[in-house]
Design goal:
Helix content is 12%, strand content 29%. With 139 residues, the protein is of the alpha+beta class. Strands 4-3-2-1-7-6-5 form a seven-stranded antiparallel beta sheet. A hairpin with a 4-residue loop joins strand 6 and strand 7. The chain is elongated.
Length: 139
């Protein structure tokens, strides 16, 4: 019986008075939509091509600074997940996900990476380095 109290509902249903809360459990929308099955409920709010620094890149090491950045298609969903894949096809499995709800900061990455239009997304687990081809994209 206690398990039912911890998770009284499985699908988000908007409350008629507050659309960001669930009518069944009153928890916020993002607490329901963080698994793959429910991602289809979330609306994409941004999508576009960005470059991602390879995992394990140490920008203090001159050899790592010249590593090739990976071009990926990023989609930011309304509930805060930022997913990236090899192409823009909806059926392509994402290569990675950044939970922007856990993001502690987004800072200019140019000083650290040596790359123009780069950003560092800081989360408790990791630093994610991305860059765009123009300033307007990262503004």
């Amino acid at each position: 019986m206690s398990a039912a109290k911890e998770n009284p509902c499985r699908k988000f249903q908007a409350n008629i008075f507050n659309k960001s809360k669930c009518q069944n459990c009153f928890k916020p929308r993002e607490s329901h939509l963080l698994n793959d099955e429910d991602l289809t409920q979330a609306k994409p709010i941004y999508g576009g091509w960005l470059l991602l620094a390879p995992d394990g890149t140490d920008f203090d090491n001159p050899v790592h600074r010249s590593r090739k950045w990976q071009r990926r298609f990023f989609i930011l969903y309304e509930h805060g997940l930022l997913r990236y894949a090899l192409d823009e096809m909806p059926t392509t499995l994402p290569q990675g996900t950044i939970n922007m709800n856990q993001c502690t900061d987004v800072v200019d990455g140019e000083g650290r990476t040596g790359q123009k239009f780069s950003l560092c997304i800081l989360t408790p687990e990791k630093e994610h380095f991305i860059r765009a081809e123009t300033k307007e994209i990262v503004s």
